[in-house]
Each structure stands twice: as structure tokens, then as C-alpha cells.
Amino acid sequence: MTTYQSQKVMEGWVARGDFAGAALIVVRDGCVTQEHYVGDAAPGVPASAGTLWPLASISKVYSVTMIMRLVELGVLSLNMHVRHFFPQFTGGGRENVVLRHLLTHTSGLIYESPQMDVRLAAQVPMDALIDEALTAPLLFAPGSSMSYADYNTLLAGHMAQTATGRPFAELVEQLVLEPMGLRGTHIRPGAELTPRIARVRNVMAEGTPGEMYNSVHARGLAHPAFGVLATAPDLMRFLQHFAPGGPRILREATVRTMTSDMAGGVRGHVIAQEGRSPVAPAPWGLGWGLQNAYTPGVYCDLSSNRTFGHGGASGCWCFVDPDTNISVAVMSNTHLRSGRDAWTVRLKTMVNAAYAETAD
Predict the structure, then answer these.
(1) Of 63, 96, 223, 348, which cross-links 227 as Cys (Cβ 3.0–4.6 Å)?
(2) What integer pLDDT is reported at residue 271 of this predicted model?
(3) How many domains does the chain have?
């Protein structure tokens, strides 16, 4: 039996206690080349193909995929103003924010509530989070800069809900999960699934009834920016819907648009892209982050500058390199709050080893 370096790297991080468990899947040209599960997903529960991992911010791409299906159906336009659905969203430049700004993180919205820890612990309802997103001052004029924000996807998801009159979670289930055949992916998991859910360490509001990802309250929010849970095989199935030659529920033109730079050449803060030149433009697609000449090695040190992907602060990472048609998905269960540098190194070493072995 082949022993892969990527599995050795994963096992090494578990042995050092950096995370309790992890999963990794690699696909090239539509075929699985590696699939590893190490350690425990939750105390006493080994990581496996059936583990449901909180995807954190990778959830944003599922939300945007649903929104783009509504664009294809003629229900939404990327140039629709937020105030079209939320008339109170005016003043201080808010009246100029359109859906495209939200999907490219160029709206000027704040990242999330400065009191998110407290709000989770107090089990504050979704309506309160939406109210704050609608009323907090903008950081800059819409379209003039970039600042990655959960509140962008929150408002975009609820624009879709208002436009259709259907609950956000139902839209994701019916327009994305069901047609993609993602039976191992959930945005409002029932209690019967709790034993399969990975437990994430170092999260917000840890030890309270509202702790991020681990509590009934947090999962019940079905938050557009961080509410999706998926098995490793299902995350890879989702990725394949954007990979060359993969299955499609979106039109090819839509996939091309989502994976091309739509941020308008602005500068700004792009999460997970430290080390980028401060004068270089900050690239972003619709939902997907981009690796290009201005942001080399964002998702993998070895993949091409056409790679697109996304990370999740719960300890997840995924990307597609269309030049080699290699897709990689990694899940683990220690939060970014444990230390950004160490968190990034853990994920990048795993994907670098996996990519190197597959690209040869």
C-alpha cells in the first residue's frame, strides 16, 4: 500500500496536538488520487468519510452559487441595489451598494459584529445580525477598495430570500445541494446528525450555549457566510462542479464569471493573502478567491496562477487548479483563532504535499 507524504504531514500535526483530526481528498481529471482521514473529528469519534465538518467561510461559495442560479433564472441581477430590498439601507454611501459589491467584498461593509462573541453567547437571533449589517457605517465608498466581510454574504443571502419569498436555507438546499446530489452536505442539520459533526477548538463563545459551529444555536442560524457542514467527499463533489470537464448545474458562462476577477482592480485587504504587494490589485471572483500573478501561492505554493479557492476559519481549505485539473480539499478542527500563522502553515503544508504528489 502506498504511503503518501501528505498523510504523513497530517499525522504529524495530529501527533503534535495542533488539531485533533483531519480529512484530505485530491482529485485529478475527475478521479480520486488520494483520500486520507486521521485523528478524531470529535472527542472519541474518529475522522471518517461520514464526518460532517463545519466549512466556516467556504459556506460563502455555496451561498453565491445559489445566488448565481437566481441570476441565471432572471430573478436577481448583480447590479441590483441592496436598498431595492432593504429601503433603510441608505446614507453614508449605502445607497450605492449593489449585489456585485457584496459578492466581491468591495461594498465597504464591516467584517461582522464587533461583539460577535457576546452575541453568540447570548444566542442573538439572525434578525439582529442583519440589522447591524444594514446600519453599521461603511469602511469606504462602495467599489473603491476591498475588505473581506461575512456581512457581505449575509446581506446577499437575504436579498435572495427577500426576492423569492423563500427561506435562505431552503434556497441553498433546493438550488444547489439537491441538484448537485450533495446528500452529505447540510445547512440546517437535524439533531440526528449531531454525532457525526466535527467539534472545532478555539472558537468564538467557546464554552457557552452559542459557541461557534459547535452549538445548536450557531448551526441553527443557517448563516450564509459560515453555516454549511459537509463530508470531505461532498466538498470535493461541490468543487468538481467548477473544475474543467466536471458536472455542472450552472452554465459554463456563470462558472467562468465566478472564477474570473470581478473586483475591478481595486486594492485592499484580502483574507489569507498576506505578503501581497500593497500596491497590487486585490483579485476576487464571485464567491471564489483567486490566485494570480499578484497573489501567488495563496491556495497552494505549487499550483498555477489560475487557481481559485476558499478557506474556512474552522480549519478547512479547498481549491481547483484548472491548468492541471487538480482539486484539493482539506478539513481539520482547530480554528484560526489559535494563531493565523500556525493555522496557515498547517493547511498549506498538507495541500502542498498532496499537490506535489499528484502533479507528477
Answers:
(1) 223
(2) 67
(3) 1
